Amino acid sequence: MAPQYAPSLRSRLPPLLLFLQIGFIVIYAVYVEIESNIKADGTTFSSFYPEFQDVNVMVILGFGFLCTFLVRYSYSASGFNLLVAVMATQWAIILNGIESWYYRGKIRVDLGSLVVAEMCAASALISIGAVQGKTNPVHLVLIALLEVSGFVLNEWLLQTLLKVPAVNSIMLLHIFGSFFGLTLTWILFRKGSLQPFEKEKFDRQTGLFSMLGSVFLWMFWPSFNSVLVDNHSPGRKLGAVCSTYLALAVSAVTAAAVSALSSPKGKVNPIHMQSCILAGGVAVGVSMSAVHQPWEAMTIGFTAAVVSTIGLKYLKTHMQLALECHDTCAVLSTHGLPGLLGWLAHLLLQIKAGDDHTTAIRFAVFHICTLLITISLSLSMGIITGLLLKWNFWRPPQDKKCFDDQAFWEFPHLAVKK
Q: What residue intervals traverse the membrane (predicted)?
């Protein structure tokens, strides 16, 4: 019989967080300084801060509220999202600044480096969505540190070996984060999840908060896709914003239509609307550098919504039964499949735009290598992280305490109301 109370994390969580945070403070005190020449890249604080703010809203509010659909796990979803985001961002700043430290002796921090670090943190937030509710905050912090390390390594490999532009390598965060998370949930699979967990439910109130997070993400996604586009080409940044908005608009309409078509009663599934309306933004973000016409972005958004909605409808259950992969937030359908579609669209559009067959073949080879490196590294890092987290030393919650805020938060009134 399982214990009545979840394992206490007093001997694990506080020492881990304090050790990491004090270590970060020491590193920042010795090696990190704020960039004083804010106009070095042609931008100013007043022009770039709104874009940084948009990305910050997406990472903290958008992803935080998006995962609050579980009726007994909404506090943990939003609270641990903030914890993971800030820890991952601090770590990403250090990792991204290693080259600067090597050549200059200091890690320079400005709004640009903060945005890149938060986008690295977003990849970790995607990953933890796959294991949400079945892990404790110690697991989540370790996942964030290792996932960000793998993602930064992948970014460095792509830029160094294949000369992939920085914006293209960073936008692969959807593919890297989703496959990393799927590997984790496969390794950490609980036999009890072959049957639905008792508390893995959602209701109208938590669904409304989750829809709020989805709306935040939908509204600010154009900034997310365009923030790293070269400021010296205003037309490219405007094109990124317009293409992302059109893809998001089409994906929202298509997701509603496909959801109603796939329902026996012809009704729209709220979970489809919470997740699949973002598919167009994911897909067009991965293929951004190759999208030049509005119809291209709209076609990508349409196809991404169809693939995402059908995947969410049928794929999640089959993966759980056939592959023993319990994907809580359906990150494969929300980020993985649209990300792969965006990668394919980038390949096809780039080949279509080229006149030289030799150049097209060479690009295709490099583009395929980009995907293979990204997936291989994400799966490898996911396996390493999963094996580390299987250690009982981290005190994972029992099956009866999965998807339950009371395992980690002090809410005495929940015992009465629930």
A: 12-31, 55-75, 82-103, 109-131, 138-158, 170-188, 208-224, 244-261, 273-291, 361-389
Position 415 in a domain = no
Strand boundaries in 60-198, DSSP class E: 107-109
What pLDDT, on the 0 to 100 scale, is given for residue 30? 94
Provide DSSP, 237-296. HHHHHHHHHHHHHHHHHHHHHHHHHHSTT----HHHHHHGGGHHHHHHHHTGGG--SHHH
| Type of residue numbered 199 | K
- Whose tokens are 């579609």? That residue is 341
Q: Determine the structural domain holding residue 133 and report its residue range.
A: 46-409
- pTM summary value: 0.91
d(CA 285, CA 55): 14
Strand 32-34, strand 107-109: pairing: parallel
Largest CA distance in the chain: 70
**Alpha-carbon torsion (90, 96, 98, 104), positive or negative:** negative
- Dump pLDDT digits (tens) for 373-384: 999 999 999 999
Is there a domain that residue 321 lies in? yes
Assess if residue 335 is contained within a domain. Answer: yes
pLDDT of 413: 55
Residue 143 in domain: yes
94: nearest Cα among 33, 155, 173: 33
